Amino acid sequence: NAGVTQTPKFQVLKTGQSMTLQCAQDMNHNSMYWYRQDPGMGLRLIYYSASEGTTDKGEVPNGYNVSRLNKREFSLRLESAAPSQTSVYFCASTLKAYNEQFFGPGTRLTVL
Amino acid sequence: AQSVTQLGSHVSVSEGALVLLRCNYSSSVPPYLFWYVQYPNQGLQLLLKYTSAATLVKGINGFEAEFKKSETSFHLTKPSAHMSDAAEYFCAVSEYRGSNYKLTFGKGTLLTVNP
């Protein structure tokens, strides 16, 4: 099992460009999450999907959109990137929402 | 609202010394509690979890944590630090809010181990 995989690992964008971060899990988990990590801020939830076909906003959803493509895949889209979105993005998944989450290796995004 | 407080953004210990990382939470009901570790340039890895069974929870790499309801604390300890323990540690609390469980992270504690 690969667990949770994320692509790309690194990305540099110019202000205003768009991109999609991809996440996939092979553990047959129901719930998937997108977080951003900034120094001194811990992890903050952007969006989550409790089950296939549903998505909900987290703590910091502005400037992002998500798609739960199927049970395995959950993508995060930046329509018009801003320097404030420079961060490390983590995808996570869990079988049951109260259980521990399993994290991907992260995507380091820089917006110039 | 749920909140998690990790006391000390940076803790430094000598190799072989006791490691104590503090975590306090605010919750009206006993939550699910977790400690995660993050090594440089990696994702988060679960160290241990409390799910209302034993109050003393043992995790990987010799770490353990004790749930104290009266103190709303879930501090992480290890009797003897090793150089390989140098990493950032996050306390997290899962609580049912609205229509789903939400996981709230503390801001993290960076552990440095000195030779």
Explained architecture:
The complex is a heterodimer of chains A (112) and B (115). By secondary structure, chain A is mostly beta strands. Chain A is 0% helix and 52% strand. In chain A, a hairpin with a 5-residue loop joins strand 7 and strand 8. The termini of chain A are far apart. In chain A, 37% of the residues are buried. Chain B has strands at residues 3-7, 10-14, 19-26, 32-38, 44-50, 56-58, 64-68, 73-78, 87-97, 100-105, 109-114. In chain B, strand 9 (87-97) and strand 10 form a beta hairpin. The mean pLDDT of chain B is 90. At the A-B interface, strand 5 and strand 10 of A face strand 4, strand 5, strand 9 and strand 10 of B.
Short overview:
Chain A is mainly β.
Characteristic terms for this protein:
heterodimer, A: 112 residues, mainly beta, four-stranded antiparallel sheet, 52% strand, B: 115 residues, six-stranded mixed sheet, five-stranded antiparallel sheet
| Unreliable stretches covering 5 or more consecutive residues of chain A | none
Beta strands of chain A, count: 11
- Mean of all residue-level pLDDT scores of chain B: 90
pLDDT under 50 segments of chain B (min length 5)? none
Strand content of chain B: over 45%
Tell me the β content of chain A.
over 45%
Based on Cα principal axes, name the global outline of chain A: globular
- Biggest sheet details of chain A: 7 strands, mixed
Run of helices and strands of chain B: EEEEEEEEEEE
> Main β-sheet of chain B, in a few words?
6 strands, mixed
How far the N terminus sits from the C terminus of chain A, by CA atoms, comes to 36 Å
Structure annotation, total helices of chain B: 0
Provide the helix percentage of chain B: under 10%
The pLDDT mean of chain A sits at 94
**Percent of residues in helices of chain A:** under 10%
Structural class of chain A: mainly beta
Overall outline of chain B? globular
